[in-house]
Design brief:
The complex is a heterotrimer of chains A (about 130), B (about 80) and C (about 120).
Chain A lengths: L2 E6 L8 H14 L3 E7 L20 H12 L2 E5 H6 L5 H6 L11 E4 L2 H9 L2 E5 L1
Parallel strand pairs in A: 1-2, 1-5, 2-3, 3-4
Helix pairs in contact in A: 1-2
Chain B lengths: L2 E5 L5 H5 L7 E4 L5 H5 L6 E4 H7 L8 E3 L1 H10 L2 E5 L1
Parallel strand pairs in B: 1-2, 1-5, 2-3, 3-4
Chain C lengths: L3 E6 L8 H14 L3 E6 L35 E5 H6 L12 E3 L1 H10 L2 E3 L2
Parallel strand pairs in C: 1-2, 1-5, 2-3, 3-4
């Protein structure tokens, strides 16, 4: 059994990368490997908004990541700098920056880039989906 | 270190190849699977089955086809991966 | 032994934010005492031109941060000489932050790294 972490930079609305990443995550879990953390960076953080609302006949990546993470106990972390820039915020950061609302899905957390470095050092493989 | 390159854009194939060393491998994913529908197969070259099926493509030659589980195991058969973006 | 990380810049600046985002990853990983190498290849060599003025586009100039790489202990900073020549760029036009090397050396550095990032 190996431990994986993923770095996801693909835009969830305009490219395939997030779909590839979640498929890879499901597959590694189904054959008994462990997933430690999925770190979202660049446009990848856009998936962390609980306000993402695709048409009902389309796959909801935000909800799917959330469900998978809860079932398999791994972390979904969005980089704070790039998330704030793109209007993805939790209540604490919204308050600190005098923003009027928050939209981070409760299954996700926002944190620093150090979480990426740590995931890299503590996993057997770090796979990038851009 | 044996490296598995992950390529998702067909336009970056030659750039990626110029970074590869002798023992390295490459797996074509997403739009890059069109390469397998056009070109000859190569040792240490793999193509992701689900991305072929999604696009209604058939490899032109005797390509090494991996499904997602095979892709996961392939990343462990190499020392590291590089997603060539 | 500390783990090694190669950061590959292969795109010209400003069309995408990848150069800036890679720089942030490099600086953070350096704080974790990783052995970081910055590689400039293909159109990534344009990242180092010394007369960038993205302020005309209201965009932030991230190129001064390349001068901070040394300060962060990122000692290996290599430019693919072939890619520079191919684009008709001389080293005098670049920020004095990296040295030119062969394609073979770049390949070797990538091969020997524990991790490699591109964006």
């Amino acid at each position: 059994m190996a431990t994986f972490s993923l770095l996801v930079t693909a835009n969830p609305h305009s490219s395939q990368g997030q779909f590839s990443a979640i498929q890879f995550a499901k597959s590694l879990l189904s054959i008994g490997h462990e997933l430690k953390r999925v770190f979202f960076y660049g446009d990848g953080v856009l998936v962390a908004s609980r306000l993402n609302h695709p048409p009902s006949d389309e796959y909801n990546l935000t909800k799917s990541w959330a469900k998978l993470a809860i079932e398999h106990d791994f972390e979904l972390v969005a980089c704070v700098t790039v998330a704030m820039k793109r209007g993805i915020t939790n209540a604490v950061e919204a308050d600190r920056n005098a923003l009027t609302g928050d939209n981070l899905d409760p299954a996700f957390e926002i944190s620093g880039l150090g979480q990426l470095t740590e995931a890299m050092l503590e996993s057997d493989r770090l796979i990038t989906f851009g | 270190m044996k490296t598995l390159y992950i390529l998702n854009k067909p336009s970056l194939l030659s750039q990626c190849q110029s970074a590869m060393s002798a023992d390295d491998g490459i797996i074509l994913v997403e739009d890059a699977v069109v390469i397998a529908a056009q070109d000859k197969a190569n040792t240490d070259y793999y193509v992701l089955e689900e991305d072929l099926i999604a696009r209604g493509l058939t490899p032109k030659d005797d390509w090494n086809i991996k499904d997602y589980e095979g892709f996961v195991e392939l990343t462990l058969a190499y020392d590291k991966t590089v997603s060539w973006l | 032994m500390s783990k090694s990380l190669s950061i590959i810049f292969n795109k010209a600046p400003y069309g995408l934010q990848s150069g800036r985002e890679l720089l942030d990853i490099a600086l953070m990983a350096a704080a974790f005492d990783m052995d970081i190498k910055a590689l400039f290849i293909e159109d990534g060599v344009y990242q180092l031109l010394d007369n960038q003025q993205p302020d005309v586009l209201y965009m932030k100039n991230h190129s001064p941060t390349f001068k901070a790489l040394d300060l962060y202990g990122i000692e290996t900073r290599l430019i693919a000489e072939h890619d520079l020549d191919e684009r008709g760029i001389t080293q005098e036009q670049l920020l004095p932050v990296a040295e030119t090397t062969s394609q073979e050396t770049i390949k070797q550095v990538i091969s020997e790294s524990d991790f490699v990032f591109m964006l």
